Amino acid sequence: MKPQSSAVFREFRKSDKKTISRLMHALNKEDSQELPLDKEKVNQLFRHAPKKIYVQLFAAETEGKIIGYAIYNKAFSVEFSGMYGEIDEIYILPKYRNQGIGTKFILWLEKLSIRKKFHAIYLVSTIKNTKAHGLYKRIGFEKLPEIGFIKMF
After folding, report:
1. Is the pLDDT of residue 101 over 70?
2. Rounded Cα gap, residues 120 and 73, in angstroms
3. What does the buried/exposed string (b/e) look like for 116-152 if buried means 16 or more CB atoms within 10 Å of the residue's CB?
4. Gap between the Cα atoms of 1 and 113, Å rounded
């Protein structure tokens, strides 16, 4: 295991667009089960995130360099007893993995959800991302017995 690096987590700044866009494309390339990513999808995120109405974008940073990001959605579910936070995407550059940064980032987002008085934090992972599944279980996430479906329009 690599030595632990310290990282800070913060809200997205407009000056982060280029770096976060590059990281989003890296995630999409790395995980072949992700839906295709295009410029318009990325631009939609950058249009909506600053408003903080239903989506927020966060950066993970070490020594002044962005090394990851998370897209965090606010949602409601009767099953989850009301409002909850959803980690739509979370990505850490491979060089910075296995140092506890991803764990700390998820726990930071969990604390954000608690401060907002949400009832749960939720995330979805692609089937083949088994290393991440182990992390999620270690920090208290439970696997749900569901299969997701989507119809795009």
Report:
1. yes
2. 12
3. eebbbbbbebeeeeeebeebbeeeebeeeeeeeeeee
4. 30
Give the SS3 label for residue 45: helix
Which token pair is 100? 């506890």
CA distance 140 to 137: 5
Among 151, 33, 147, 57, smallest CA distance to 105 is for 57
State the average pLDDT over residues 130-139.
Answer: 93
What the block records as the tokens of 31 is 């995980």
Over residues 19-78, the pLDDT tens digits come to: 999 999 999 888 766 777 888 889 999 999 999 999 999 999 999 999 999 999 999 999
